[in-house]
Design a protein that fits this description.
Elements: H1 10-17, E1 27-34, E2 39-42, H2 50-61, H3 92-98, H4 100-103, E3 111-114, H5 121-128, E4 132-137, H6 140-153, E5 157-161, E6 176-181, H7 191-205, E7 206-217, H8 219-225, E8 228-231, E9 236-238, E10 241-250, E11 259-268, E12 274-283, H9 288-297, E13 300-305, E14 313-320
Parallel strand pairs: 3-4, 3-6, 4-5, 6-7
Antiparallel strand pairs: 1-2, 1-12, 7-14, 8-10, 9-10, 10-11, 11-12, 13-14
Helix pairs in contact: 3-5, 5-6
Length: 326
């Protein structure tokens, strides 16, 4: 789950960092900080022309032929994703602890699928807690990071690259006691049809009585705030390196239209340089009530929801009903 930490004069701070305000990713930009005035003096190695940005944005828009965008997204952000994770969840143990309300009722050694595994923090934390864990993601770069983290922590996590709509093809029917789809990932499913196909896939691999756990942003809040820049109000430190994170939200008038979130992570390198990693992510938001209806349409019984109109994120849990046709 990603947190939004904002503050300051956003336009000036982003412009000083040399980050793009919209369009598709421009890759890595090296910057030289002037610490004396807490500002950034930019030194671009390459400047992308506006017409090229426009063409690339069109290419991005037309790329979603499948249910999710993971196969063409997170290729860049996978390398810096730890800076997007809240401090409390920045370790495998902390991440697993954050979802103890879901796993507390499971037997030791229960089988869990993390179907939006990202860099593997939750999957590895659950494996350390004694569960049998399978982790999958549509992004090969994310799965590679999960594999590396599991090796570093000396735990076994079975991994696979696949989309949510491909879950029924993995030989996992009725296998898992719990399926977790967290980190605000479900909004990457393309529209309501894509979201329902994703949830159908998750329900298919749940054992009877198994629990599905989903986390989501409060998209009502995101849309009411409109298109904007969110600059996190502090430096984030991971493994001794510091970075500043900027979100650029592109919110169209219609709920059903493709939205965009461009994330930029400016990490301090050795010496006085920054490496800026930027990626544009397509998003299809949904109302809380729509999500509950979609969960029910997948044949699952709602167990609970923490939705609160004034809170930025929420958790939905559901169970697979006995006798669900598969």
């Amino acid at each position: 789950m990603l947190e939004d930490r904002t503050g300051g004069d956003e336009d000036e701070r982003v412009a000083a960092l040399g980050m793009p305000i919209g369009g598709c990713p421009i890759g890595v930009v090296e910057l030289r900080p002037d610490v004396s005035d807490i500002g950034w003096q930019s030194r671009r190695d390459e400047v992308e022309r506006p017409e090229r940005q426009s063409k690339r944005q069109g290419a991005c828009h037309d790329a979603w032929g499948g249910i999710t965008v993971g196969e063409v997204a997170y290729g860049s952000l996978a390398s810096v994703y730890e800076w997007l994770v809240p401090d409390a969840k920045a370790s495998p143990a902390g991440n697993a602890q954050a979802f103890e309300m879901v796993t507390a009722g499971l037997d030791p050694g229960a089988q869990i699928l993390d179907c939006a595994c990202g860099i593997g923090l939750l999957a590895v934390g659950l494996a350390e807690a004694g569960f049998r864990v399978t982790a999958c993601d549509a992004s090969p770069a994310m799965v590679e990071r999960t594999q590396a983290l599991a090796r570093a922590h000396g735990v076994e996590v079975s991994t696979r690259v696949c989309r949510w709509d491909q879950l029924p093809d993995q030989g996992w029917q009725d296998r898992f006691d719990a399926v977790l789809c967290v980190g605000n990932s479900l909004a990457h499913a393309v529209g309501r049809s894509g979201r329902r196909a994703a949830l159908d896939g998750m329900a298919f691999v749940l054992a009877t009585g198994g629990v599905l756990a989903l986390t989501s942003r409060n998209w009502e809040q995101i849309r009411s705030a409109g298109s904007r820049l969110d600059v996190w109000d502090r430096l984030v430190e991971r493994a001794g390196r510091k970075a500043v994170v900027v979100y650029s939200w592109q919110v169209p008038p219609s709920w059903d239209a493709e939205h965009h979130l461009q994330i930029s992570v400016a990490a301090l390198q050795d010496g006085d340089q920054l490496q800026v990693t930027t990626e544009l992510l397509p998003i299809w938001p949904f109302h809380h009530e729509e999500l509950l209806a979609d969960v029910a349409a997948a044949g699952l019984s709602l167990a609970g929801s923490t939705y609160d109109a004034i809170q930025p994120n929420y958790l939905v849990t559901a169970q697979r009903r006995t006798g669900l046709p598969t």
